[in-house]
């Protein structure tokens, strides 16, 4: 009843809005702020994702009439060696993109434990640099470093290990490892900086208390630094694992999946199956399997790094 | 805790060793790009220094077209994502309409979905409405790809704004729109700058979406063009190195100018695990 709200100056007093119960008009206004972003996201990300799920049940070449085949394409992903191997390769990459960089990051955080930040900001600029550079350019640089007559082999010759020199990216035994190490190079700086800046936020009294109890540097690292970095480790693991499993740019430029399919990854095959071989159903099924794999990894990482009750 | 000089020295040596490891590939391609003779070498200095490779790469790679495409795509993607994410972040964090947490969850799920999941359908859907080989199509796809992080970022920022500030605006009878524009935006400069820096770098570096949605050679972005360039000039190291440096230069410049914002974005954006 607006009449009851009449004030001395003749204007109606505005009811105090509370965030808990919005009036219908305000509620509509609030939705209007969110709607544009939500609509574009739904139309260009969520809808295509569900559409891919639908494609994964079809036998379709992208042109002619599609045929419904249910889960046959999924069976193909797990039985056709080419497709299944790409998943295995991406699991190998998780070691190089995620496990190694996190290990190196923890090593550095441990070494800098309890030290001031002096001079760290200059290093920070360099350490984050690999995160900024387009992976296509990173791939080109490493192709050159790894080349048969490239700097890496030259260096081996110089220090008398010429016998070890090899065309790293062209050998079936070495290509995947060489590719993985590029990922290690790309991800380590990020992990190092995340952990070092995280370690600086740890209350120094915890270290002092541990030292009073007679804990040596290793004990202090395990009992104070590691638990203190739980959040940073969790997020670093999520970022690097997603980068490993969904890698595309780097592989496309450095090896294109070769030699002899030794370095194929799901991303590369999704692209080829869909746009070169016109096997849309297989490409979509592989993309769904990849997504499920990522979701499994992410939830396992979250669970492992959760605060122990 | 005080550390002995020996320990400090050891720490710095380790830091420097890692820094060298991160810089080696860059030093290498700079040297390779400046080499005059066509012999490819390692880290020894070129016999003859030259900038000729940049000119040739620019010509051969048609980098005038490529760079222009990158700028056009970025000029659409960055401001649109910024505006959409700011409105949505404010709506979800401050106004909280019904279903706001479900909507937020939908955006957060997007943080883990790979581009590979959407690329196939995106191509066929956009193709059916004539949006492939079209700046708008690529730009919209990129906006959707960057929205989850951007909305999450702005949501986190607006959640941290003191409630009292918003309440004071409401008591004064200001509309939601005015509270955002006159009270919140002035104190959001740092958060917005960080988002602009991240979006600019991500938009410039995006490869897979452009590779699929932009098949026309004149409309490709610089990074996608570089990907094709490798296929054509795979063995001409000085030329490849020069082309790479042309493509890298803009992001490195933006990064060096705004490195504080970039670092803040990566480290703070990652805080909530």
Characterise this structure:
The complex is a heterodimer of chains A (309) and B (273). Chain A is built from 13 helices and two strands. With 309 residues, chain A is mostly helical. Chain A has a single domain, classed as MetI-like (MetI-like fold, Orthogonal Bundle), CATH 1.10.3720. Chain A has a two-stranded antiparallel sheet with strand order 1-2. In chain A, helix 1 (24-55) packs across helix 13, helix 3 (81-111) packs antiparallel against helix 10 and helix 8 (204-212) packs antiparallel against helix 9. By secondary structure, chain B is an all-alpha fold. Chain B has a domain at 65-227 and 248-272: Orthogonal Bundle (MetI-like fold), CATH 1.10.3720. Helix content of chain B is 75%, strand content 0%. Chain B has 13 helices and no strands. The longest helix of chain B has 33 residues, at 63-95. Chain B is globular. The two termini of chain B are 29 Å apart. The chains are: A mainly alpha (309), B mainly alpha (273). Chains A and B meet through helix 1, helix 4, helix 5, helix 6 and helix 7 of A and helix 1, helix 3, helix 4, helix 5 and helix 6 of B.
CATH class of chain A: Mainly Alpha
The CATH architecture classification of chain A is Orthogonal Bundle
Provide the succession of SSEs of chain B: HHHHHHHHHHHHH
Largest sheet of chain A: 2 strands, antiparallel
């Amino acid at each position: 009843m607006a009449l009851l709200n009449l004030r001395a100056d003749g204007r109606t007093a505005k009811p105090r809005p509370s965030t808990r119960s919005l009036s219908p008009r305000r509620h509509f206004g609030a939705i209007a702020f969110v709607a544009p972003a939500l609509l574009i996201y739904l139309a260009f990300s969520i809808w295509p994702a569900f559409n891919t799920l639908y494609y994964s049940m079809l036998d379709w070449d992208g042109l002619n009439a599609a045929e419904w085949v249910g889960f046959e394409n999924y069976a193909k992903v797990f039985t056709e060696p080419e497709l299944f191997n790409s998943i295995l390769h991406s699991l190998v990459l998780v070691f190089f993109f995620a496990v190694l960089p996190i290990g190196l990051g923890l090593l550095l955080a441990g070494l800098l434990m309890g030290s001031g930040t002096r001079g760290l900001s200059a290093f920070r600029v360099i350490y984050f640099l690999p995160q900024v550079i387009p992976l296509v350019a990173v791939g080109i640089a490493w192709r050159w470093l790894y080349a048969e007559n490239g700097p890496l082999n030259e260096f081996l010759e110089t220090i008398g290990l010429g016998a070890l020199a090899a065309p790293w990216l062209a050998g079936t035994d070495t290509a995947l490892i060489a590719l993985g190490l590029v990922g290690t190079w790309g991800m380590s700086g990020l992990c190092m900086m995340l952990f070092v800046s995280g370690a600086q936020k740890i209350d120094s009294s915890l270290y002092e208390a541990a030292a009073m109890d007679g804990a040596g540097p290793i004990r202090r690292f395990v009992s104070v630094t590691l638990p203190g970095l739980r959040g940073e480790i969790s997020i670093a693991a999520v970022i690097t694992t997603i980068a490993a499993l969904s890698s595309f740019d780097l592989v496309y430029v450095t090896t294109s999946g070769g030699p002899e399919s030794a370095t194929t990854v799901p991303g590369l095959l999704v692209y080829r199956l869909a746009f070169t071989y016109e096997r849309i159903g297989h490409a979509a099924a592989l993309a769904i399997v990849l997504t499920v794999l990522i979701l499994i990894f992410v939830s396992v990482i979250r669970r492992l790094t959760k605060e122990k009750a | 805790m005080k550390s002995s000089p020996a320990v400090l020295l050891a720490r710095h040596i380790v830091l420097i060793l890692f820094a060298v490891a991160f810089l080696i590939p860059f030093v290498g391609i700079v040297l390779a790009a400046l080499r005059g003779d066509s012999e490819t070498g390692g880290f020894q200095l070129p016999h003859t220094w030259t900038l000729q490779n940049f000119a040739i790469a620019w010509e051969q790679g048609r980098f005038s077209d490529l760079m222009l495409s990158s700028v056009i795509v970025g000029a659409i993607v960055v401001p649109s994502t910024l505006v959409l994410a700011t409105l949505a972040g404010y709506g979800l964090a401050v106004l909280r309409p019904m279903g706001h947490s479900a909507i937020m969850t939908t955006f957060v799920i997007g943080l883990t979905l790979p581009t590979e999941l959407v690329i196939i359908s995106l191509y066929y859907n956009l193709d059916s409405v004539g949006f492939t080989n079209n700046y708008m199509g690529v730009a919209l796809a990129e906006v959707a790809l960057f929205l989850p992080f951007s909305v999450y970022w702005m949501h986190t920022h607006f959640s941290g704004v003191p409630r009292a500030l918003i309440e004071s605006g409401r008591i004064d009878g200001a509309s939601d729109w005015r509270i955002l524009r006159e009270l919140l935006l002035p104190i959001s400069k740092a958060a917005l700058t960080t988002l602009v820096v991240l979006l600019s770098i991500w938009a410039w570096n995006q490869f897979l979406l452009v590779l699929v949605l932009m098949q026309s050679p004149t409309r490709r972005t610089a990074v996608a063009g570089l990907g094709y360039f490798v296929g054509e000039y795979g063995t001409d190291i000085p030329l490849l190195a020069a082309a790479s440096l042309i493509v890298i230069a803009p992001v490195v410049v933006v990064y060096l100018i705004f490195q504080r914002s970039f670092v803040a974005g990566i480290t703070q954006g990652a805080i909530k695990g």
